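User: Can you fold this complex?
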Amino acid sequence: MRVPLWAQPLPRAYLDFVGRVLLRTLETIHGIGAFSLITLGVAVTKFNRAPRVLRPMIREQVYVAGLRLLPFVTFLGFALGFVVIGQTVALLNRVSVGNLAGTVMVTVVVRELGPLFTALLVLARVGTANVIELGNSRARGEVEALEALNIDPVHYLVVPRVFGMAIAITSLTVYLIITALLSGYLFVFLQDVPLSPGDYFAQLATALVWEDFALLAGKTAIFGSIIALVTCYEGLSRPLRLEDVAGASTRAVLLSVVGCVFVDTLFIIVYLVM
Amino acid sequence: MSASDSPSLIELRDAAIAPPSAPGVLVLEHLNWRIAAGDFWVIGGLQSSGKSLLLHCAAGLLPPAQGSLRLFDQEIAELSREDAFPLLLRVGLVFENDARLFTRLTLAENVALPLRYHFNANDADATSRVQPVLEATGLLDFAGLSAGDVPRTLRQRVGLARALVLQPDVLLIDNPLARLGRSDAWWWRDFLKRLNTGHALTAGKPVAIVVTTDDLRAWSPTGRQFALLDGRGLVCFASRDELETSAHALLPELFADARVAV
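Assistant: Here's the predicted assembly.
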């Protein structure tokens, strides 16, 4: 009797492929996990070490991953406001549930879209550059040069990036949310929706609870740390040759997105419990 | 080989060294080598004979695969990171070729980095300590240049300045005369000789020097102790005379390879 197709064993090549992917994934998770713990340990034990070297580097990261992206975040905030907020509020008013606008805005923009959009933007603009820069540093032997000077490479290269990106993404997210909410009302106003600015912002104020601020800060700081850690890991884990750069950058983007979405899912559970 | 009554700065005892990329492959074995205060060692060896690995190991950058490394009479493997740290700071290492400068920093920032990192020096302090080093090494005019723009022939000199700024007791310099012209080669020999006998930069304190080379002709008038990396071991010579009268098979090649004019 012929065995049905669904009951036939998978060709060996498929199993090999799945096994390889699984093992490589576990290896990467193990590597990034160990790297994160090392970075945490270094950040804690050397918290106040070399402030005159580290602080300017953190400020530089905040500039590169934060201030320099302000024009684009402004554009994104307006786009988000016009496309999502304006239309949603107009639609809610049309079906006479305009009083839900605040809750919807807080859920959609403050809790979800704002942090995730900002993290993805920073990842695209700064994350890949980070991989290339660190990979080149490693290939040029600068890591060994730091060790020869008894400077901890993790403390010098990774810690400022983690702090800088965490601060940058948190600040940029707040800016994006404010821009989106303001431009959203502009769209509502242009559409002649019967909603006064007072009512609009009162609804937002009512829908926001203090946990939103705390969780927003926590979530965005974690997003920043994940992006910094993953990109630093991909850049520093081995010397990058020219042909390795594309693969390492792609892997860093993919892993960062997966990490951020995973953390976002955990935060959704917290929001649901709240 | 080294002055036996002088205090020991670096000592390898029955050490074996493996490269970090292949930890199971021993490139150098049974190394017994002692660097004492005031020594001027010249280590000769062919390309890929393990000269850089030997210096990295002696600087504490690469732990020996077997045997032991002692810095300033203390077994480095037995010390905690905090206890080993002040000893490691007393050993300066200058890498080969481009000296692995930090290309995002200027030349002056490269030299000031160890001061700012280890001693939290402010701008004024760092400048006051970096300036004399740059002046002595002839780099003052290039201080504001990005490290990537520093002429190739001066990059290892920047590495030397970066190591000197911490006033080490011993300097390990990897092949400093490689691809240099006559005047640069002369500068290196003269400067290292003055450091070895006591330079104003180190307040007259003699600095022990170790240089590696693949051309012994350039260093034989300057060095005081000599060694060859022969196969997988280190062959030491007590004096210049012993080196020059030796019938070691490697010597004709190392003396004939005259890429640097003396």
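The two ends of chain B are 25 Å apart (CA to CA). Residues 109 and 234 of chain B are 37 Å apart (CA to CA).
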